[in-house]
Amino acid sequence: MDDKRSWRSSVGILQNGQSWNDVNKIFPQTPASPVMVNAGIIVFIATIFFIISFTSPYWLVSYHYTYSSFENMGLWEFCFNEFRYPQYQFDRKFDGCNYIYSEEYLIIREWMLPAWFATVQAFMIIALLSSFSSLIIISLVLTRLPMQFTIRYEWHLTGIACICQGVSGVSILFAVLIFGTSCFRRDWLLNPNFNYLSWSYAFAVFSGGIHAFGGLTLLHETYKARDRKRQATNLLHNEPQGQLGPGIPMEGQVYM
Questions:
Q1: Is residue 10 classed as helix, strand or coil in its secondary structure?
Q2: Paired residues of 70 in beta bridges
Q3: Do residues 7 and 236 make contact, with C-beta atoms less than 8 angstroms apart?
Q4: What is the pLDDT of residue 12?
Q5: Is residue 48 part of a domain?
């Protein structure tokens, strides 16, 4: 119903041959609410922590005093120190840091990438896409570009950004839970008691919490933006018609 009223209002404004530029001169651009600005800052900080965690190879690290052949790993990179895979019949050493899908790890990729770890990667990719989508939508709302579209559908866009934040938070939650409960399995990396969860994993947990907080902030702003639109729509229909259409006064006209 609100969309129909908004559409009719837009038609009424333009029915006398006036352009949106004429309307913008009478109704100046309204800035985004402070809550939306704060939500944008929160989401931006969460995304920064998430990107650092997503790209850094320090989710799981070996204690230095153990002299383990495994050194550290992340979602996309493993580091070894003259590691020999016991089930490989040839004397092949894996040394240094390499991309998990590189040709160097082709022989042991199936062992390095079990189903649960691939699931962690999938959840983190979903969280990355959702986080960037939310940032793009929030940027459109904050900059009011394009103005007519963002003002007309502000609460819809804010709601979509809120959903994206929720998807990011839930995906990160599943990823850190699966990794935290499975990374010490003895059928994966050798000597799991030599390893510990490091700062990249902590950044993922922290970013998940910030994403959840950002989602709650956007949820609050969604309801506020919807109420503002309803009030503006009611005011527009209750005002007398002027030269430019319903709700827009003619030059020099004063409402009593």
A1: helix
A2: 80
A3: no
A4: 41
A5: yes
Domain of residue 210: give its range: 31-58+113-237
Contacts of 36 (CB under 8 A, 6+ apart): 138, 141, 142, 158, 221, 225
Contact 83, 70 (CB under 8 A): yes
Please tell me the predicted confidence (pLDDT) of residue 28: 53
**Count of other CB atoms within 10 angstroms of residue 120:** 24
pLDDT for 230 equals 75
- List Cβ neighbours of 216 (8 Å cut-off, separation of 6 or more): none
CATH number for 36:
1.20.140
Q: How confident is the chain (256 residues) per 10-residue block, as mean pLDDT?
A: 43 44 51 86 96 96 90 94 80 88 89 94 97 93 80 85 95 97 89 92 96 93 81 64 46 42
- pLDDT value for 142: 87
In terms of C-beta density within 10 A (0-12 exposed, 13-18 middle, 19 or more buried), how is residue 185 classed? exposed
pLDDT at 120: 97
pTM for this entry: 0.77
Rounded CA gap, 209 and 203, in Å?
Answer: 10
9: three-class secondary structure by DSSP: helix
**The pLDDT of residue 11:** 39
Q: Where are the beta strands (DSSP E) in 33-148?
A: 60-62, 70-73, 77-84, 93-99
First vs last Cα of the chain: how many Å apart? 29
Structural domain includes residue 222? yes
Does 87 map to a domain?
no
In a domain, 142, yes or no: yes
> Number of structural domains, the chain?
1
Structure tokens at 108: 């042991």
